[in-house]
């Protein structure tokens, strides 16, 4: 992959707007050609080179009380400068438009890719790495690809000036070519070393993002324990910053040293020509002036080209990280078409197996055989690490089963029906996210139903819903969960999953949840799955599924529970 990245970097910039990129680069090429014409015009106008046609120095034109020598060359010079101004400005404006558009499209494509990726793979990638790719790498790729038009301008300028040098003196032309080749080759050595450090810096950014997320989301815990707070600062935050600082300094030191060396390559050649070459070769003063002026002018494009390389290396590293991120994130091949499922009353889980792969510790859920029914409340219980949450994610069709089958009635869950079956499911997990508005097919005009739920959940004085948007989501954890419950109730799905929903609720709202919400869902013919440790409410369950070490240890029905009591 690394050897193809430069091509991919350019493709990343051109594939979405090839015509605009072509026009931008064409204008850049025109600007480069015009740049290379300025020195010959100046030399020709002042008669500094005998190889060029002579010019009548006495000709002059008075314009606006300003005497202008060689008016034709002056007008030509002015016209070329105007062309350079227009062409380069237009090229850069197009470039900004392209870069902005492609940044937007690239992020949208990654968003879409994330939405289509399996949940278990996203869990493995982690939020810190995902955010680093979206917020950092994409911009660096676009910034790097955006250097190509400027690189073309300087390259065309360099070629034009080298052509002028060839016209002036063939031997000096080859001296300059050899110097450029030597400088370019020796310039690559420190850049290769710097690229190694840039890759390390990019990995450190993932670590730093993860550390910052821990700081943002773990502040409440850190506030309660000074030793833990100091340890997190010194051992994690400071360590992440130190690693990033040290390798960033190494990379920048090497690259900037190489850049300074590259800046002086042209001056070394000028010094060689002015102080050494003239002692061994016959060269006229006029030609020497032309060569030195051309070499001074060449210095700018060479410097710009060499300074572009480190930025391209950063973009190359970023592109590699994005490609790696995308390669690790496969796409679900599930059909996007939502079909109406044939009527179903039960969901059967037959010989289900799921394995956590690529982790330091192995864990397998299953094989699982069970059946859930509409109008039934099923509690899933068990100790920590017993597989409760993993089973819930399989029930929610978030995790793909490695073996076994799931049937909604007589409809088997496969790639053609997966998304259609998901449309029947609503879930609130422990790591739920509360959006600031009602999304999708929820009807925000169900004011009476919304108000009823707000009252029941004790949110009527906290939250209002206007135009489908919540007036606030700055709520306590318990209130956020209750608002999430309101959203799920409005969705009116067939299968409800609650993962420790009542764990952080006040006793009064636990009663509302267990004694009012769950029975209401059951009465409406919904299938309800609850992970809970509230054994004093187990009496409302129609079925209790006991998990242990990734397997169903036993299933107790309501009749069996009543017989025990």
Features:
14 strands; alpha/beta; elongated; 6-stranded mixed sheet; 4-stranded antiparallel sheet; disordered N terminus; 13% strand; 565 residues; single chain; 16 helices
Output the structural class.
alpha/beta
Oligomer: single chain
Shape: elongated
Q: Please tally the β strands and state the result.
A: 14
Largest sheet: 6 strands, mixed
Radius of gyration: 35 Å
Q: With helices defined by DSSP (H or I, 4 residues minimum), what is the helix count?
A: 16
> SSE order in H/E notation?
HHEEHHHHHHHHEEEHEEHEHEEHEHEEEH
Helix % is: 55-70%
Poorly predicted runs: 1-7, 49-58
Global mean pLDDT: 79
How are strands sequenced across the largest beta sheet?
8-11-12-5-13-14
N- and C-termini, Cα separation:
66 Å
Percent strand: 5-15%
